C-alpha cells in the first residue's frame, strides 16, 4: 500500500514537471518570437529611419568622391629670384602634402592603434563601435570611446561637415562604405594623414597634415619622426587645440600634462597592438618631448612685410587675369568692370591660399636685405614733425608724430625686372608701400618725361635750342600763374641742356606751352604713368610736377628706364611665374615692349641728364658713389619742398628715391649740414653702393650708352633763334648734339 502511494506521487510530480516544462518552453518560445520580432522591428525601424535620413542624398560618383577627398588646402610658397626660398604664403592654415611612403611607420602604426584598430579589417564602418558609441551617447556615459573609423573621419572632414546630428552620421556611414569601394586602404590612410588637423605649430599658426605637424612641432620631416614624436603627434587629432603644445602666439604651454597623458595612451595602445616592444615603450616614455620642440620660425610677413604684401597683391592680380581669360574676358574688360574684377581677384586669392602654388619673383634677396638695412640706419632723413589729424572714432583733432618716409625702387632696364625696393622705414607704423603705392608730386623729374623728350620727339626743341628764362605770367581764369626758379632768379636766354642741368622751371613751362595742344600726356600713358589724366594737360604747372594725384616711385623710375632702352618702354614686373604643385606653369610673365621715343630722342635725353650729374643739381652723386658708371639722372622737388626725388639710369639699371612726409609738409631745408636735395642724393648713393657690393657687374656696367645713328653735332648761336648776326657774335657760339632730322640748316 505504501509502495503504491509512492508510485502515485512520483507520477504526479512527473506530470506536474512536464506541464511546467511545457508551459515554460512555450513561454520561452513566445518570448523568443517576441524578441525576434522586436529585433526585426527595431532593425526595420532603424533601417527605415536610416533610409529616411539618406533618401535625399545623391550618391556621389568615384570621380566626385575622389575630388572631394583630395580637395584640401595646401600652403603656397614664394621665392626670391634664382629660386631662393622666401617662405609660405599668408594663410589661416598651413599644410604640406606628403606621400605615405614619406611618412614614418611609427606614425601610421600610432594612428591606427589609436584611431582605428580594425582599419585593415573593416569596410568603412565598425558596427559594434557605432553601437557602443550610440549607447554611450544615449546614456550620457562619462567614457566616450568614439565610433568613427579613419574612413568616416575622412568623409566628415572632406565631404560633410562637423555638424552633430543623426542625419550627418547616417550620411557619413553610407559615404564611408562607398569610399572604401573606390579607394584602397593606402589611399585612404594617405589622404587622412594629409587632412587631419594637428593644432598649432611653434609659431602659433594653425596646421593640418602630418608633414606640417612634423615640421611645425619638431622641425623635422614626417619620415624622420621617432617613436615618441610620432606618438605625441598621433594623439593630437582627437582634440587638436586641447593637446597642442603651443599657444596662439607660439609660446610653449605651461601645462603639457594633458598632451603627455594622451601620448602615453597612444604608446600603450601601440604596445597592446604588438607594434612596439616593452623596451621601446619604456624608452619612448622617458623621451623628453618638450626639449625637442621646434623653435619659433618668423613668417615671411614678419621678416619681409612690404615684400610679402606686394607679392600677394601682384600674384593675385596676375592670377585673376589668367582666370578671367579662361572665361573669355580680356584684361581691359576686367579693368573697366570693378565688380567683375573684384570677383576674379577673390577667386584668385582663394586659389593662392589653397592650391599649394609656387610663386617665383624677381627680387634679389641679398640686394633687398642690404637696402633695408641702409634705409633703416640712414641718419639724414630729417626731424620728425607733429601733425594734427582727425581721430576717426572721436572726431577730435589729435597730435600725430610724422617721420620723414622713403620709397625707392631698382629696375633692370632690358627686362623690367624689379630687383629690389624700399617700401618705407617702419611697417608697424605705416603699412603703405611708398615705392609702389604712394602717389606724390614728382617735381622736376617730370620735365624729361612730359616736356623735353616729347618736345624733342616733335622737333620743337633740341639740346641746343635757346629758351627765354625771364619772368613769366600766365593767365589762368581770373588770376595769373607765375612760375619761379628754385634759386628765385632768372637767367636770360639759356639752352635746353642748361635749363635741364640746373632744373630751371620757367624754361620748362615755356617749352610745355609750345606742345600743350599736341597731347604730351600721351607719352606718359605709354610709359605706364596713367594717374595723370588728359584733362590735366591744360594745367601748365604739370610741366614741373604739379599733378592732381601724383605718381608712384615705381611709375617714375619705370618711365626713366625708357630712355635707357632707347625709347622703348618695358613695364616693370615682380612676379616671374606661378607654378602649380604638379609643375604646371599657371602664369608666366611676358613683356610687351611699347615704342615711345626714337633712339635719337632717348640718347639726347640721356646725354643731357649726364650733365645733371656732372655739373648740375646732382653733382654730389659721383663723390657719394664708391664706383663709376655711365649715369644719367634728374633731381626733383615738389611744391613747397614737400617731396624730394632723385632718379638715375645707366645701361643696366634704373634707380630712384623719394623722401617726404606722409601728410605732405615741407622738408627741412638743412639737416645736419645737408640740404634736402643732398640728403636724398646721399641716400640714393648709399643704397646703390649696397647693391654694388652684392652685384657689381649689374650695378656698374663697363659699357656706356652708345650714340645711335642719326645724331649730329652742330654749332649754334647762344642768342635766341633768328637773332641778327651781330647779336650772335656778341652772345657767342657753342656746339651741341642734334637729331639730324631736326638739326639747324645754317
Automatic annotation (TrEMBL):
The chain crosses the membrane at residues 21-51. It catalyses: Preferential cleavage: (Ac)2-L-Lys-D-Ala-|-D-Ala. Also transpeptidation of peptidyl-alanyl moieties that are N-acyl substituents of D-alanine; [GlcNAc-(1->4)-Mur2Ac(oyl-L-Ala-gamma-D-Glu-L-Lys-D-Ala-D-Ala)](n)-di-trans,octa-cis-undecaprenyl diphosphate + beta-D-GlcNAc-(1->4)-Mur2Ac(oyl-L-Ala-gamma-D-Glu-L-Lys-D-Ala-D-Ala)-di-trans,octa-cis-undecaprenyl diphosphate = [GlcNAc-(1->4)-Mur2Ac(oyl-L-Ala-gamma-D-Glu-L-Lys-D-Ala-D-Ala)](n+1)-di-trans,octa-cis-undecaprenyl diphosphate + di-trans,octa-cis-undecaprenyl diphosphate + H(+). It is an enzyme of class 2 (transferase). GO terms for molecular function: penicillin binding; peptidoglycan glycosyltransferase activity; serine-type D-Ala-D-Ala carboxypeptidase activity. One of its GO terms (cellular component) is outer membrane-bounded periplasmic space. This is Peptidoglycan glycosyltransferase. It holds the Pfam family Transpeptidase.
